[in-house]
């Protein structure tokens, strides 16, 4: 099975990023519902804004680069939120992704 990493994603999308265009970085978290699953790694009970309740799911935090001229959005980084395995909060993941984006030259205002 081939596993893609955050670095693979960046290498794939980097040629599409116009660093000279005005942009914003959009930080977002998503819960991939796994309500019918009995036992899957990384599935935890978390609050879902869509369901307005706590449900079983896999937490995904991601960072999008959004070009304000072309109105194009491109995912540039993501992390699986699994506090049990790495001890990191969603905010810690977002901070690390923003620091990496800045080092990569993706400067922009941040939007949550």
How does this structure look, described?
By secondary structure, the protein is of the alpha+beta class. It has one domain (6-111). 23% of the residues lie in helices and 38% in strands. Strands 1, 2, 3, 4 and 5 form a 5-stranded mixed sheet that branches. A hairpin with a 5-residue loop joins strand 3 (53-67) and strand 4. The longest helix has 14 residues, at 90-103.
Report the portion of residues in β strands: 35-45%
Q: Could you give the order of the helices and strands? A: HEEEEHHE
Terminal CA distance reads 33 Å
Q: What structural category characterises the helix and strand content?
A: alpha+beta
Count of extended strands: 5
**Mind describing the biggest β-sheet?**
5 strands, mixed
Helix content: 10-25%
Mean pLDDT: 85
What shape does the CA trace take?
A: elongated
Helical run tally: 3
Supply the number of structural domains: 1
Q: Regions with pLDDT < 50 over 5+ consecutive residues?
A: none
Task: Say what oligomer this is.
Answer: single chain
Rg, alpha carbons: 15 Å
